[in-house]
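User:
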Amino acid sequence: MFTDVTFKKYHISENDKLIGDLEVNAPLLTSTTFAMPFIREKELKRVTKIGDRNYEKLNQYIIRSLKDYYNRLMNSTSISERSIMLKTYQHLYEMWNDLHNYKRSNNLVEMDKTYDLFSYELYVLGYTE
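Assistant: Predicted structure:
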């Protein structure tokens, strides 16, 4: 995940004509290889993939984070904090079940979307790889 939220702005040109701007997070600039970096959708460009996804590492990261979050939940003393954490944990566990179902059905598109969302939500909770 990105630790810096500072975006640099770049002008994108095609055939010597300005077609738009791109705001890029600083860690993205250090990447040297891109796989299918941009998709054109009605004059909109977006980065769709950087490098290859390591599913085994992602699974380990998710499992480790869920175990830690569960331990934090069980050790919380405040009833209101515990209630909020329990709802969050239930949501994360449902996502884990969805991910498992997408794997079983070989639905790679939904599986990748779920991995992305899962990683983001864990990052928001303070977990990094």
